[in-house]
Write a structure and sequence with these properties.
Largest sheet: none
Radius of gyration: 28 Å
Family: Belongs to the SMIM12 family.
Keywords: Membrane, Transmembrane, Transmembrane helix
Helix content: over 70%
Distance between the termini: 89 Å
Subcellular location: Membrane
InterPro entries: UPF0767 (IPR031933)
Number of strands: 0
Order of helices and strands: HH
Protein name: ATP synthase subunit e, mitochondrial
Strand content: under 5%
Structural class: mainly alpha
Length: 68
C-alpha cells in the first residue's frame, strides 16, 4: 500500500519540486561562474559583424576589378 502511495506522490510532485530546485541551482551556478570568470574579455575577431565584413570585402573586390 505504501509503495503505491509513494509512487503516486513522487510521480506527481517530482516535477513540481525538481523544477524550482533546478532553477535555483542554475541561478547560483550562473552567478558563481560570472563572479569566478572575472571581467569580460573582448574578442577581436567579433568587432565587425559577418555581414559588414562581407560588404567591405565585396566593395574592395569591386574596386580592384574596376582598376584592372
Amino acid at each position: 500500500m505504501w509503495t503505491v502511495v509513494a509512487s503516486r506522490l513522487t510521480s506527481r510532485w517530482a516535477g513540481v519540486i525538481a523544477f524550482p530546485v533546478a532553477c535555483i541551482v542554475g541561478t547560483i551556478g550562473y552567478y558563481a561562474e560570472k563572479r569566478l570568470r572575472g571581467p569580460h574579455k573582448e574578442i577581436p575577431y567579433l568587432e565587425k559583424s559577418l555581414a559588414q565584413r562581407r560588404t567591405e570585402r565585396l566593395m574592395a573586390e569591386e574596386v580592384a576589378a574596376t582598376k584592372s
